[in-house]
Every structure is written in structure tokens, then in C-alpha cells.
Amino acid sequence: xxxxxxxxxxxxxxVARHGSYSAASRExxxxxxxxxxxxxxxxxxxxxxxxxxxxxxKKIRLTPxxxxxxxxxxxELEIMLERLALVVTSQRPxxxxxxxxxxxxxxxPSVLAAFHARFPSVELIAYERxxxxxxLVKNGSLDVCINERFxxxxxxxxxxxxxxxxxxxxxxxxxxxxxxxxxxxxSRGRPMVTYEPGQTLRNMAMDFLAKGGGQTxxxxxxxxxSSVKKCVESGLGFAIIPAWCVEPEDADLAQVKIDVLPPxxxxxxxxxxxxxxxxxxxxxxxxxxxxxxxxxxAS
Length: 299
Known about the structure:
The chain is α/β, with parallel strands linked by helices. It has eleven helices and twelve strands. The strands form four sheets. Strands 4-3-5-12-6 form a five-stranded mixed beta sheet. Helix 1 (6-18) crosses helix 2 (21-28), helix 1 (6-18) packs across helix 3 (32-46) and helix 2 (21-28) crosses helix 3.
């Protein structure tokens, strides 16, 4: 397979976009001849003619193969070049993290505070979502993911951070708590607040209740645990959410640890090529230091 040369590809792209070597050479701060030589070298690499021009003509024409290559590059190459320009200009590293809203809202502030104390120049961008994280890492949209799903994908290696239990949470005025094994029967006929379809914790809660003959239809669905918990506080129903979502000051809520369910595993994953990145390694270590032994149980 021929080695990809970004310089040659960028020159061809600009020649094709502007329709001339002279315009491309001005934008790249190259000589006319250098721009033309870049295109010729790319043609040699690809073993195909990409550009045609008449002697003395100011404009070029793309061959069918040149048109196909330009359409393949546009607009992704332009977006990539703009992003690279921003990175080079700002000289500020960025780490993009995908994770469920609840993990970010309840668990990550302490992690981020400690990380920023060590790396104040690094911008951490959080994308709060539960689904499609593996694909987002694989296509380059994310660098890191922290979530409850194990992908089993060698391109997105994951390591187990720790585990947590799910709790039944309901308005305290509903009365005394049921035993964990009686929760499915207790839930029957009661309004249920849960997560949007497709989210991991919704599926786990529904499976648990269904196997015991309990409630399997939601009256209200929300995107994250903070929203689900707020609905329960408002009396809209009961929910099954992570134990660390309920805090000591939540006096109006009753909760029951569902110890008949296996603990939920939380994984730290990253793009394969980012595994040795110093910021990724530091974030992974800080997650262990800040979360394991407090919000998460050791694996």
C-alpha cells in the first residue's frame, strides 16, 4: 500500500478547489512549480492522471479520477485541516470524553478538579451520552469513553474501573421499603420513571422487574439520572438508579439497595492509538484514585 503524504493530498485538493496551480500555490505559500510538482508526485504514487492543463492555460481540468478523489476528500479534508490549524494556533491540547450524563454529573467533578490541578492547559470536552460511544471513538469523534457497556472491540480497548449497585428510589411518603426480592411485586401498578429507550440502565431495570412479574412500562422517561431523580422527587413515580445518585440531604426519598442484582461494571476505554497518550493515562489513573473506594467498589 502506498504511503499517504498529506502535503501532496492538500496541494491537489486546493488545486482542484481553486481550479489553478497559481491560486493553490498562493494559499500554500509555494511556488507555482512546487504546486505542480506535488500534484505530479501524487499522480505517480496513485499511478493515475488526476489533472490536465493546456500549455499556457491559467485553469486546470480534473480527470474523472481527479474528480472522484476530490469528491472523496471534500469536505472532510477541509474540516480536518481547519481543526489542525486551530490546534497548532492555540497550542492547547484537547481531550474529548464520552460518558453517560449521570457519571459526568455525579462522579466526574472531583476527577476533573484533580486533573486540571495537574494539567491546567488541557481542555476536557465531555459528550454526555450512553449509546454509540464505541463508534464515536472508532471514527475519531472521541478520545476516551467511560461507561457501563463492554464493547469487546480491539480498536477500543477497555479496562474495568470498578462496580456499583442499583437502588430502588421512591417518594418516602409511599410508605415502608420493600425487601429487594419483593421489588418486582411491589412495583406492579405503580408509575415508573426511567431512562430513554436503548440506555443500559433502563434495560437492566426492565429485565429485573419483568423476571419478577413487576412493572415493565414506563410512565416517564428522561435522558439521565439527575432528570430521573428529579421526577421521583416530584412524585411522578419510582426509579431504579445508581446508588451514588441519592445523597444524604435527599430526605424526601427512600431507597433500597438491590443486592439481588449483580453490580454494574464501569469501564474506561480509549482509542487504541491513544493508549500511551500522557493525558489519557493521567485521566485513567485519576478516575481510579478519585472514584474507586468511594462511588465505585474495587473490581
